[in-house]
């Protein structure tokens, strides 16, 4: 869990053979569920920002992690992290589609310049752990593009084979279209490759089964393996086959596009200012496109990167820039809008409330061969909260009915409401955050009225989601 929530990817769970020699001070415990292995949680002391999210999320009565003086930890832990960072756990030793297993997968997004305790980055980090070097990311301008690509540093990293996600940022206003273009380009390249491969398979029946398999495989990891096998078969043909000049050229052309052979997963990522407001026209166009793309909306409920201006995702009663006396209108229901498209996978998640639900939604979105949109609750310094408690705040957001967790899958035509009836009062939850508490200081009567309205809206939204669940 501590690794799962770490905004900076600075925590690495280590799983090694029990007899592996380790540096002095690299204490391990026997690994639960692995008879001949040992386990350790290793922190990168140079990259930890000290947010404390990891220590607070620990479910044990006696917390497994304690925050200590950074300087001292750098002295003692630096060499341990250097050792741990080179260890890769064999993929067959874990199931990456579980909360625990996902953390043994290499993080290909780490040490970004995001704020300590950022609520956006853990979602991106998790996605890179699940889909790794098969990800192609279109990033809207906003916090995620700034911590995602402020040169000369780059948090998108590579695995031991030197491969990582491909990433680019275009504009704030056209990111959905930018990602759609990436998908169309990838599909086009694949279609051309398929044409050439099918022609070759007709002439050389020995490669026909592997070409067929290559075409049928949509699973990302399996596609990578089959693409490698296909390359080997083509190289074999070049060496041993009785081939003329034009076939040789065709094979060489395919091999030169080796990176385009395996399936890719396109992720269109950005904040609520992009998705709900400025890029919304394009987002809607992509929702209606039917293309295989995944949209991740990091909903911090304000334009975070420019200092916290109100967006259409800001709930009524929140004091933000451009809504100094509290936002008067209600939060836009982007999830409900997306649900108007029966062919779109729609999920709303909050990692701190339900890690498993967040992971399942990300997995289902990727697996769905069509448009998927995930709206992710993202805590932010602009909320006026204790950033070390971000995950707990997400849990309370769901318990109070401020945020609802659901997944709609077009494959089953079913909506699953993953969050239960509220067990905490909406207003009690909101008042703990400065963005709402400030209005109580300025104008208590207005605060009461706006928050009551927001509460009623949120309760009504839950009822609508319940109805949709029952209808299916
Ligand atoms: C067309 C346009 N308008 C305004 C900006 C300035 N701008 C850059 S990032 C940003 C805020 C982004 O907010 P959001 O999409 O919510 O993402 P967050 O920073 O919250 O992650 C703004 C207004 C811009 N780059 N382009």
Keyphrases for this structure?
alpha/beta, Rossmann fold, 8-stranded mixed beta sheet, binds thiamine diphosphate, single chain, 2 domains, 3-stranded antiparallel beta sheet, about 475 residues, Alpha-Beta Plaits
Overview of the structural elements:
With 472 residues, the chain is α/β, with parallel strands linked by helices. The chain folds into two domains: 1-96, Alpha-Beta Plaits; 106-192 and 242-472, 3-Layer(aba) Sandwich (Rossmann fold). 44% of the residues lie in helices and 13% in strands. The protein has helices at 2-5, 53-57, 70-85, 99-102, 121-131, 143-149, 175-203, 208-216, 220-240, 245-256, 258-261, 272-278, 280-287, 334-339, 355-367, 390-399, 426-431, 434-442, 444-471, and strands spanning 11-17, 29-30, 37-43, 135-139, 166-169, 265-271, 293-299, 302-303, 309-310, 345-349, 372-377, 406-409, 414-417. It has an eight-stranded mixed β-sheet with strand order 5-4-6-7-11-10-12-13, with helices on both faces. Strands 1-3-2 form a three-stranded antiparallel β-sheet, covered by helices on one side. Strands 8-9 form a two-stranded antiparallel sheet. Strand 8 and strand 9 form a beta hairpin. Helix 7 packs antiparallel against helix 8. The longest helix has 29 residues, at 175-203. The model has no long low-confidence stretch (mean pLDDT 96). The structure holds thiamine diphosphate. The site of thiamine diphosphate has 21 residues, from helix 6, strand 6 and helix 12.
């Amino acid at each position: 869990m501590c690794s799962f929530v770490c905004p900076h990817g600075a925590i690495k769970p280590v799983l090694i053979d029990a007899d592996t020699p380790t540096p002095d001070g690299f204490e391990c415990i026997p690994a639960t569920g692995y008879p001949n292995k040992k386990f350790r949680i290793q922190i990168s002391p140079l990259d930890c920002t000290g947010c404390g999210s990891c220590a607070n999320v620990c479910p044990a009565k006696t917390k497994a992690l304690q925050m200590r003086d950074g300087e001292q930890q750098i002295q003692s832990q630096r060499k341990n992290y250097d050792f741990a960072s080179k260890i890769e756990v064999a993929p067959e030793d874990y199931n990456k589609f579980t909360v625990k297993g996902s953390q043994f997968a290499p993080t290909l997004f780490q040490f970004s310049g995001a704020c300590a305790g950022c609520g956006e980055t853990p979602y991106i980090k998790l996605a890179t752990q699940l889909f790794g070097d098969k990800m192609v990311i279109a990033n809207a301008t906003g916090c995620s593009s700034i911590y995602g690509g402020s040169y000369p540093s780059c948090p998108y990293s590579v695995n031991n084979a030197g491969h990582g996600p491909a990433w680019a940022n275009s504009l704030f206003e056209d990111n959905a279209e930018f990602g759609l273009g990436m998908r169309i380009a990838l599909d086009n390249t694949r279609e051309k490759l398929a044409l050439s491969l099918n022609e070759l398979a007709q002439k050389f029946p020995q490669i026909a089964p592997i070409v067929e398999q290559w075409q049928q495989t949509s699973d990302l990891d399996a596609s990578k393996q089959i693409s490698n096998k296909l390359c080997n078969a083509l190289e074999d043909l070049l060496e041993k086959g009785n081939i003329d000049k034009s076939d040789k050229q065709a094979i060489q052309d395919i091999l030169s596009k080796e990176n385009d052979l395996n399936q890719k997963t396109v992720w269109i990522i950005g904040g609520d200012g992009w998705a709900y407001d400025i890029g919304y026209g394009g987002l809607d166009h992509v929702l209606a496109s039917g293309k295989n793309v995944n949209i991740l909306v990091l909903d911090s409920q304000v334009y975070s990167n420019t200092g916290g201006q109100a967006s259409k995702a800001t709930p009524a009663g929140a004091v933000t820039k451009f809504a100094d006396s509290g936002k008067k209108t209600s939060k836009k229901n982007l999830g409900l809008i997306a649900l108007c498209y029966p062919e779109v996978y729609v999920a709303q998640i909050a990692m701190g409330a339900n890690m498993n639900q967040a992971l399942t939604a990300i997995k289902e979105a990727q697996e769905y061969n069509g448009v998927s949109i995930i709206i992710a609750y993202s805590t932010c310094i602009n909320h006026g909260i204790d950033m070390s408690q971000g995950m707990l705040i997400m849990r309370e957001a769901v318990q109070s009915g401020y945020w609802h967790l659901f997944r709609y899958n077009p494959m089953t035509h079913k909506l699953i409401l993953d969050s239960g009836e509220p067990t905490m009062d909406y207003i009690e939850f909101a008042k703990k955050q400065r963005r709402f508490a400030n209005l109580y200081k300025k104008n208590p009567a207005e605060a009461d009225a706006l928050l009551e309205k927001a509460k009623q809206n949120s309760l009504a939204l839950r009822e609508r989601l319940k109805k949709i669940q029952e209808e299916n």
